[in-house]
Amino acid sequence: MNFDSSYKNEHTYYKEISTSWIKWFTNKSLTNFLVEVDAEYIMEAYNSYEIELVVSNVDKLISIILGDSPINYEDDSKEKYLGDAALLYSTLHKKFILTPKGLAIMKDKYTKGDYGTCPRVSCAQYHVLPIGLHESIRIAPVHIYCPSCQEIYKISYEKNMYLDGAFFGTSFPHLFLQTYPNYKTLKTPTCCIPRIFGFGVYQNFTRIEYKIMKGEFGEQARAKFLAKKPKYIRKLLKTEAQIKDTNT
After folding, report:
1. pLDDT tens-place string over residues 153-164
2. What is the value of pTM for the model shown?
């Protein structure tokens, strides 16, 4: 979907009429992942050189973002700027949620489950965080990251709905979990053990087991896993040797 066109129609996808552009934009069902960026933060960013590199007509766009909702526009002169205003807001939002205040706001949304739960059954509906696959706009939509299995998943969008991943960037969930380590699970993710008629089917590794063995869930999880299944270290070496042979 075209990024500009998805934000220019002010009569589409909003929950309630608001008096400000920011409230109108963040209250739309299209963008219910977003938070309201402080006007003070926006003005600080306005005085920096970096946002000049994102869009032109910065003065005009800042006045739109800090102004009234498009619902209240008396003429159509500002409508053509709505796409660029959303683009600029994506940059401001991505940076704001990495600040102490922004992280605290995102924590409240996370604990309430605003971003949903992990689609992986074994994660037992663990709350997820939004993540972008790229820092730049118009490349990929927002995805979700699960702190339990440490995997990234696509979001099922309703028709004509789209939220760009650049509103969050690639760093947010990782900085969030560094700031609030209590939201990291201490449990090692479980994996599906393939069985046929009740008998286990031989395989080298499941994906989760391989990640545990590689230490991606921490050395404590790896040591605990090897204590239960010491033979897996030989499987790991054998698997990596096979991968190396395949790539040579």
Report:
1. 998 776 557 889
2. 0.74
